Amino acid sequence: MNRRLTLLATGLCATLLLGGCNTVKKADYSTAVDENTELRDRLEEAQASLTEVNERNRSLTSANQQLSDENRRLAQTAADARQNADSGGNAFNQGSVGAGREVVIEIAGDVLFKSGQIVVTAEGKRALDRVASRINSEFSGRTVRVEGYTDSDPIRKSGWKTNERLSSERALAVEEYLVSKGVNKDRIYSAAFGASNPRSSKSASRRVEIVILAD
After folding, report:
1. Which domain covers residue 96, as residue numbers?
2. What's the pLDDT at 47?
3. Is 123 exposed, middle or buried (CB count within 10 Å of its CB: 0-12, 13-18, 19+)?
4. pTM passes above 0.70
5. Which of 192, 193, 184, 172 is nearest to 212 (CA)?
6. Residue 146 CB coordination number (10 Å)
7. In-domain check, residue 198
8. Into how many domains does the chain fold?
9. Structural domain contains residue 51
10. What is the CATH number of the domain that holds 107?
């Protein structure tokens, strides 16, 4: 009887011990699963953050490139404006010497107008004042044609549907300003050429040519 009780107690203890061991293993497993899940979530968050940082770096790189391109464009615009002003003055002076010759006065579009606009700037008015004065004093009896030109870039931001329409409005604005400064309105007209007859650069292509026709 005692032997049976001993064997039964021993078996019960073994069962409890095995059960306890199984309980501990399941708890450790659950803890490991939770830790693994947490680590996976943290890894996903880190990957998402890295992706965001990479996207921001690409955006900043693109923005820096655009700024660099814009700086180069502005520098080229300024250089072309100076060159056009010099060449326009020379062409005018040469034309004023020889009677009966066609005279072409070229003024950079970036001097006359802001981007996408048709209102003559203060700087543009000063240039046109000089042109009007010379026309009135030296070429009052000759016909004047105001030609508008643009670059070849498609119209995107401004309200003008085509480059031809923009060049037309700009040429007309110059014509009207010259008339307001005394140029005979019956001997001046405007013409639009859009992106035709381009120059060496986009900024140089954006221009207005004031052509004093031959007698």
Report:
1. 83-212
2. 80
3. middle
4. no
5. 184
6. 24
7. yes
8. 1
9. no
10. 3.30.1330.60
